[in-house]
Structure formats: structure tokens, C-alpha cells
Amino acid sequence: MHSFSKNITAELCREGLINLKMTARVLGVLLLFEAVLLGIAGGVSLIYKEGDAIYFLYSILITVACGLGLMLYGRKAMKMMGRRDAYLIVGISWILFTLLGMLPFRLGNYIPSVTDAFFETMSGFTTTGASILDNIEALPHGLLFWRSLTQWIGGLGIVFFSMALLPIFGGSGQLLFMTEATGVKHIKVHPKVAVMARYIGSFYIVITCIEGVLLWVGGMEPFDAVCHAITTTATGGFSTKQASVAYWNSPFIEYVITVFMFISAVSFPLYVLALKGRFRTLFRDDELLWYMKSVLILTAVISLSLIFINQYDVEKAVRAAVFQVVSIHTSCGFATDDYAQWPQFTWPLLLFAMVAGGCTGSTGGGVKNMRLLIAFRAIRNQFRQILHPRAILPLKVSGQIMEPRILTTVLVFIVSYMTCLFLGWLLLMAMGLPFMEAFSTAVSAMGNTGPALGAYGPAYSWAAMPDAAKWLTSVLMLIGRLEIFGLLMAFYPGLWKEH
Predict the structure, then answer these.
(1) Most C-beta atoms within 10 A of its C-beta, which of 18, 209, 261, 414?
(2) Cβ–Cβ < 8 Å for 264, 363
């Protein structure tokens, strides 16, 4: 045993702190996976006999070449993965997927600008849903499907899909899973992460199919129904129409999408446990109850304001309010009404929903309701501690005592999130965006929501934004999607030199 440990230590010393060959090998496999996805979108182009099929072929060849090149470099990799490798894979995989995923837009000149093509693709993979397109219907079906597919894959996370592949290479899927959700406890559906990934992935596919059928029955064309089902379950928000869901002007379609947006922002492991017979976990989960109360309160307040101030009838007010609240709270970003025309006191409520986002273990973005719940209960405990200095007041969530290190990590995460948000806001104003547009755009990008307020609200695209601001918001989208540390760790010097 001592000899084995010595050999491993020697091997690590030769390889360095980062197992670059193993990292390259995993990234190569992921790029081959992206090539398959590009092939599926290219197949849609062939079905509709449109000219973008050739650009998908070029993109596939380039992606396969990059993937094989990385796998060739890592062919003799030591089958070990540490936390440093996991952080690198998480950050680099999203950037590589975006760079190669934008090729069909760029090669076919459907989006002439590299900046715009990168922005659109990053918005897709991070499930943000902000777009620079002013005539979405002009895109061929293959590219419309590719936009939707980027969100569906990004919804559960590119790295999450790789968890089933990593055991082949001796990698740890658990490490990758943890890098995408910092500072919260994870519900264990199965002791093996790869099996847990299959359970959750299966549920993801099933609810996508159910929603697609309902939207088709409700009046959407099959292609539109599939694309909207994909982007709803991913809480992404890309639509095949410039007017988004409002194009159909259908209460049935709006209610269906509202329900599935809400469902998709609930922790997926909870559903799996419920389907395995543990139904009580749904009703005992404090984060889910917090999320439901938040949606109900915001919907009620905004509905009343639309009835009494904007003179909406009751059904229209409730439908508009619940759709927009759920869409923003889940970071989906679909729109059926221009909330920039709503009473201004509702805007801070919507901004709160953008920051809060969905639940941990879901496709939703934002800070996540679990972290807000933990922070709120920590504040409440502090008041109690002041009154009762000698009392031992454990912080409980869903009946479980939160360890002090979890509370520390959550608070550090929230402070880091707000710091990045403030810096993004400041830089956007320096780039020429007005005060409100800069703030709401930073909040929307970090929360992976999509529409903001003012000139970048649901009635407009982000095309008019300066190029520098598009690159900055792309970075903010990625920081928000990877929950800050997943990306910023790559810039921490200790990752590269501390033993």
C-alpha cells in the first residue's frame, strides 16, 4: 500500500498539480458529444431541405478534429482526477462548446459578427435566452433547432451529461457535480453519481416529451412545439418567433408553459425520490415551499396592480402576472406581456425574482432559493442569539442541521455574487448603458434570465448593445451559470501553484 501511494505521488509530481492530459481527454470526449448534437441539428436542416446543412457539416468536421486532437494528446493520461482538474474541465468545456457551437451561425453568415455569434451561442448554452436577433423567423429550421438544443443541453449542464462518461476514464463525476453547485447539500438519489445522472436525465426527457405533446395539441406546429418544450424544460427561453410565446395568443399554451417552467425549476432529485415512493419529501422540502410562496406572493401583488392600475380584466391580469413571474423566477425568460409597461413598483419585485432564480438541482439560474433560505434563517437565528446569548440555536433546513461550513460557503457565495453583479453593473455603465438598463442587464445576465428592463426588455433584443458590453454580459452569463467559483477558480493563482 505504501509503495502504491509512493508511485501515485511520484506520478503526480511528474504530471504537475493539474492532470492536463486527463483534462484534455475528457474535453475531447465532450467535443465529440457536441459533434453528435450538431449532427442532429444538421439532420433537421436536411429534413427541411435548407441550405444551412452544409455549414453544420463543416462545423461537425472542425469539432471532431478538435475533439480527436485533445483525445490524442491525452491518450496516455493517468486515470485520476482531482478537484483542480474538475474546475478546469467545467470552465473550459462551456467556452469550447460556445466557440464551436457558434460555427453554424458564423460560417453561413446568418450572424455576420463574431461577437454576436458568440453572444447568441453563450446565451443558449447558459440558458440565458437573451438574443441579438431582430428577425428570428428568418433563420432556417436547422439553426432554430440548434438554438433550442443548446439550451436543452445547457439546462442540466454539459458537465452533468459527462458524469456517466467519466467512470470510463477513472474520473470523479461527483467532483464535477459539486463544482456546478457551490455551498449547498445535494439530495442523494443513488450512491453512484452516474446512476443518479441517468435517473434525472430520464425524468428530464420525459417531461420534455409530455410538454411537447401538450403544446402540439394546443395549436403549435410540431417543430415549434418541440423547440418550445426543449427550451421550457431547460428554463432557457429561446423561441422560434420574434414575439416569443405571445405570437400564439393562446391562454392554453401560456398555462401549459407556465406549469412546465415551474416544474423545471424544482430540484429534479426531489421528483425522482417522489417517483420512487418517497412522496413526503416534496412536502417536507423547505426550499420548495419557499419557492412556491415567493411565486404566489409576487403573482398576487402584481395581479392586483394590473387589475387596479393597468385596468386588466381579472383572468388576463392573473395569466400575465403568473406567466411573467414564473418565467423570470425560473430564469426562463419567455414573455407574453411587456412588463416595462407595468407599474414601476413591480420592477424591483421582478428583479428580486431574477436574483432568486430556481431551486438547487434544477435547470433554473440565479442565486438559488436554498441559499436565500439559509441566509434568511441565519439572520433570524442571529436575532434570537442576541436575546439568548447562551442558547444553542442550530440552523435547520428541511429537518437537517446545516453545518457551519455550509453557512460560511453560502454567505461567501452570496457576497461574491453581489460583488460580480456590482462590478458588471459599473462596467456596463462605463460602456454607455443607462443606469437602469445597466443594472437590470447585469442582474439578468448573472441570473441567466434573458429579458431585462428598458431598452433591453422583453419587447427588444440586445442587438443595440455595444460589442464590449456583449462580451462582458457573455462573461456574466457564464459566471452565473457556473455559480461563480466554477469559472473564477481558473484565475485563482493557488489552483496552479499551491500543493
Answers:
(1) 261
(2) yes
CA neighbor of 145 nearest in space, from 87, 221, 65: 221
Other C-beta atoms lying within 10 Å of the C-beta of residue 378: 15
Q: How far apart are CA 242 and CA 317, in angstroms?
A: 23
- For the chain, give the percent of residues with pLDDT over 70: 88
Report the DSSP beta bridge partners of residue 397: 400
Cell 457576497, located at residue:
415
Separation in Å, CA 270 to CA 429, 476, 482: 41, 29, 22
User: Over the stretch 226-258, which tens digit does the pLDDT of each residue have?
Assistant: 999 999 999 999 999 999 999 999 999 999 999
Instruction: Identify the residue whose cell numbers are 438598463.
Output: 437
Task: Report the distance separating Cα 152 and Cα 120, nearest Å.
Answer: 15
Region of 250 please: left (phi>0), alpha (psi -120 to 50) or beta. Answer: beta
Residue pair 383/389 in contact by the 8 Å Cβ criterion: no
Cell output for 239: 423561441
Q: How far apart are CA 96 and CA 86, in angstroms?
A: 15
CA distance 175 to 357: 24
Q: Using an 8 Å Cβ cutoff, are 455 and 440 in contact?
A: no
CA pair distance 478, 485, nearest whole angstrom:
11
**Rounded to an integer, what distance in angstroms lies between the CA atom of residue 181 and that of residue 357?**
13
pLDDT band of residue 487 (cuts 50, 70, 90) is confident
Task: Of 356, 461, 346, 463, give the one whose Cα is nearest residue 417.
Answer: 356
CB 454 within 8 A of CB 434: yes
Residue 414 identity (one-letter amino acid): I
Predicted local confidence at residue 41, as pLDDT = 97
First-to-final CA distance of the chain: 22
